[in-house]
Amino acid sequence: MSNIIEIKNISKDYGNSKGIFNVNISVKKGEVFGFLGPNGAGKTTTIRNLMGFTRPDEGHCSINGLDCYHNAEKIQENLGYLAGEIVFLEDLTGKQMLEFIASMKGIKDKSKMYELMELFELDPKGKVKKMSKGMKQKIGIICAFMNDPEVIILDEPTSGLDPLMQNKFVDLILEEKKKGKTIFMSSHIFEEIEKTCDRTAIIKDGKIVAVEDMEDLRAKKSKFYIVTLSSIEETDRFVKENVNIIERDNRKVKVGVRGEVLPFIELLSSYKVKDLDIQTQTLEELFLHFYGGEK
Asked: PANTHER family recorded for this chain (predicted)?
C-alpha cells in the first residue's frame, strides 16, 4: 500500500517546551489512523502543519505526494477537514452555513449533505449563534464529509457530541473506511480510536512515543481470573504455582493470563474452586503507561 499522508521529521517550537518535535507519521491509502494524546500534547499543531496553515521549523509533510505548505490549495480540492475549534458565520442559519460551504467547495450534488443531516438528526433552521456546541459539531462533521473526499483530517471530531451521536459518528467512519477513504483522526477519547482505527500514534509532550497496530494491541490484552478457593491451605498451595499472581485477598486470588488459556484451566482442575470470575484488560489500560498514568 502506498502512503497517502507523510509527516517527516517535522518540528514546530513555540518555546517553553511547547510545540512538536521530530514527529514522523505515515498513513497508508485506505487506512484509518488515530492520533491519540492528552490535551496540549501536540495533536492540533501537527494537524495545522498537515493543513498547510503553518510552516514547520524543520522537516516537511505531504498528502498524495504534494507538499502540505506549498500546495495547500491544490490538496484541499479533495480533502475533508474538521477543525478542533470550529468557527462559523454566526448570523447565518445552519442551512445557510452548509449551503455556503457547499458552494465554496463547488458541490453540485448535495445528496451526501442531506444524507449526513439525516444521520446526525440535524435541524438546521436556527441561527448558528444560538446553537449548542453539539449542534455546531454536527455541522462541522457534515462540512468535512459532504464533498465525499478521498482524504479526511479530523481534529477531536466528537467533541460536544452526546453518546448517541458519538456512536453514529463511529458508524460513519466505519462506512467511509469500507469505501477506501484515508482518514487521519486526532482524539483524547480512547474508545472512538479503539473502535475505528487500524493504527494509532501516541503523542506526549510534542513527541511520538509509539505507533501501535490496533490488532496487535488487542492480541496483547491480558485476561484476569479472580479465583476463590475452598480453603487457606488450598490458596497457599495455589499461589506457589507458576502463574502470574496480581494480588491475593484471603482465599481470593487475582491471576493475569495472556495468550493460550487452556493450561491455566487445566491447572484449576486440580484445585477446589469455589468461584471464578473473569475480567478483560481494556486497550485503554494498555496505553496508560505511555502517559505516566494520565489519559
From this structure: ABC TRANSPORTER ATP-BINDING PROTEIN ALBC-RELATED
